[in-house]
């Protein structure tokens, strides 16, 4: 079978995107998310963010910083695998909805770090965490109609968002009286 020029983008059978095209999109999305997340990280390269975060009154069940550093790459890898699988599926309304929700959720991760760490907007970041549970659950439901494995790769993400929302709300509550620039 001779490959047509369009097959390099859509794959051999005219279904979803080709492997290279889907991989390029996933890598671009992950790269953009990583750049934004890195820009807002409470690590030694951002001493102002780091000292503000360390001074926040956090509940005892707050994981150590190393746990966050270990969990997020795993969660984002799961989202990337799901996004890749969806992009490889033939384009139709259910697949496009699932891809759109995948992009939304991936973008919201970076947006949350901007709200919480850079803008120190504890209330809005807690609300955004709750919205991410809804959009994450929507993504799992939409992806399940197209590719159950893609949906399954996002379940840990949604579960972590549940925990992260409780944590963000408690941090907001504990630090609310001192305003957004507390500490």
TrEMBL record:
<keyword id="KW-1133">Transmembrane helix</keyword>
<dbReference type="InterPro" id="IPR004307">
    <property type="entry name" value="TspO_MBR"/>
</dbReference>
<feature type="transmembrane region" description="Helical">
    <location>
        <begin position="126"/>
        <end position="144"/>
    </location>
</feature>
<keyword id="KW-0812">Transmembrane</keyword>
<dbReference type="GO" id="GO:0016020">
    <property type="term" value="C:membrane"/>
</dbReference>
<keyword id="KW-0472">Membrane</keyword>
<feature type="transmembrane region" description="Helical">
    <location>
        <begin position="20"/>
        <end position="37"/>
    </location>
</feature>
<dbReference type="Pfam" id="PF03073">
    <property type="entry name" value="TspO_MBR"/>
</dbReference>
<protein>
    <submittedName>
        <fullName>TspO/MBR related protein</fullName>
    </submittedName>
</protein>
<dbReference type="InterPro" id="IPR038330">
    <property type="entry name" value="TspO/MBR-related_sf"/>
</dbReference>
<comment type="similarity">
    <text>Belongs to the TspO/BZRP family.</text>
</comment>
<feature type="transmembrane region" description="Helical">
    <location>
        <begin position="150"/>
        <end position="168"/>
    </location>
</feature>
<dbReference type="GO" id="GO:0033013">
    <property type="term" value="P:tetrapyrrole metabolic process"/>
</dbReference>
